[in-house]
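Retro notes (design track)

What went well: tokenization of the new backbones is finally stable.
What didn't: we kept losing track of which sequence belonged to which structure.
Fix going forward: every design gets posted as structure first, then sequence, in one message. First example under the new rule, 415 residues:
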């Protein structure tokens, strides 16, 4: 279906079915029936979605809600109409409101919102977004365009539509954008046969392009020997090593992880990337489905890497000159000889290897089972390696929460 563009597993082509040119309002009754039947196929699929539309695409929401069974599909529909609402949903102002990157960020946040609402439910989740600028009651200098994104834990689909200016009224542009959203959603739900898709009456002056970032393909590469890969908040695949890394299992991701990352970012002056290791010294390797779902927690929010490096010696080899942000419990394990064949000599050799790679640790304190808050001052750091560890003070960060506690209570992770 897609043409391979490059080794980063991004693909591009017009992947959504396009009909010959027909008036979009022709045979309206017949088209309504087709839309209802088409949406019924979406409702029959187990995926549940959060959909967000700004500038156009509200008719897609209306159509989805107008067919019986919408509660099986839609968890939430959001229309951030003002800039304040748009910024609040993304948690920051975008570089540009109508852009492919912004649509990806919206879809990522929609996915994380859907996951949070499902709270570990059995239904798979998706995030669908549209940010557009179409005809209004005043002339526009720029192009009329829509950027649609569909974030699935295994892939991100981005669709760009540039409309021939002046060729349609607002209703015609809105209907075309909304149909494109429905076709994009249907394809993610497995309703991807060309004869079933809604016709898209494109004009000679319209431009349509679809790009797919295949996370599953690079994850398979990781299982087969690739050292690591990363996904940016807007879904781009990353191959350069991050500067500041917060490793963890993120089961689930919670506000403690996020606030610690923010504190570290303020201290070092760099964006923090999270890292999920598919192998762990104390745990079984993660399955592909677990990797996809754990990494999906960061969609639209933070860069997330995955690696096959279970120890910090191996991580230092992958990410030279990196600062590793860790909690007190992890720092204790880094310094314990039992993780080095019960050998103090091997423990010191490992610390020396980490230092030789230019890496270091930024340590946040935490409350243990005893109820006592412990930080870097409680660590038994060998004198030769004191400069390898720096502190995140209690004033800079403290959050008494753990993934284990959340799982035991059946509580949600971070929004």
């Amino acid at each position: 279906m897609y043409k391979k563009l490059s080794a980063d597993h991004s693909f591009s082509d017009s992947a959504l079915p396009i009909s010959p040119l027909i008036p979009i309002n022709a045979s309206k009754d017949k088209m309504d029936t087709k839309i209802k039947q088409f949406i019924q196929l979406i409702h029959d699929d187990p995926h549940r979605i959060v959909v967000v539309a700004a500038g156009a695409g509200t008719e897609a929401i209306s159509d989805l809600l107008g067919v019986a069974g919408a509660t099986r599909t839609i968890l939430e529909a959001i229309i951030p109409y003002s800039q304040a609402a748009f910024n609040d949903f993304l948690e920051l102002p975008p570089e540009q409101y109508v852009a492919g990157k912004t649509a990806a960020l919206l879809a990522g946040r929609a996915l994380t919102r859907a996951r949070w609402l499902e709270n570990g439910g059995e239904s798979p989740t998706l995030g669908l977004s549209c940010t557009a600028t179409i005809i209004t009651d005043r002339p526009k200098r720029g192009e009329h365009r829509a950027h649609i994104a569909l974030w699935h834990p295994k892939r991100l689909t981005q669709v760009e539509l540039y409309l021939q200016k002046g060729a349609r009224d607002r209703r015609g542009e809105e209907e075309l954008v909304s149909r494109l959203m429905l076709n994009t959603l249907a394809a993610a739900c497995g309703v991807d046969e060309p004869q079933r898709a809604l016709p898209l009456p494109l004009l000679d002056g319209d431009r349509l392009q679809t790009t797919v970032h295949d996370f599953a393909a690079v994850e398979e590469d990781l299982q087969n020997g690739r050292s690591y890969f990363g996904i940016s908040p807007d879904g781009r695949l990353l191959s350069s090593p991050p500067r500041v890394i917060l490793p963890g299992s993120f089961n689930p991701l919670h506000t403690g992880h996020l606030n610690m990352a923010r504190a570290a970012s303020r201290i070092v002056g760099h964006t923090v990337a999270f890292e999920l290791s598919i192998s762990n010294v104390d745990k079984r390797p993660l399955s592909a489905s677990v990797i996809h779902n754990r990494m999906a927690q960061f969609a639209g929010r933070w860069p997330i890497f995955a690696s096959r490096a279970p120890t910090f010696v191996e991580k230092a080899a992958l990410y030279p000159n990196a600062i590793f942000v860790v909690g007190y419990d992890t720092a204790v394990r880094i310094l314990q000889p039992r993780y080095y064949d019960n050998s103090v000599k091997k423990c010191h050799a490992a610390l020396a290897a980490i230092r030789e790679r230019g890496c270091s640790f930024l340590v946040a304190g935490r409350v243990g089972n005893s109820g006592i808050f412990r930080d870097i001052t409680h660590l038994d750091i060998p004198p030769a390696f004191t400069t390898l560890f720096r502190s995140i003070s209690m004033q800079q960060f403290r959050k008494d929460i753990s993934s284990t506690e959340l799982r035991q209570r059946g509580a949600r992770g971070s929004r």
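Added context from the reviewer: The chain has 13 helices and 18 strands.
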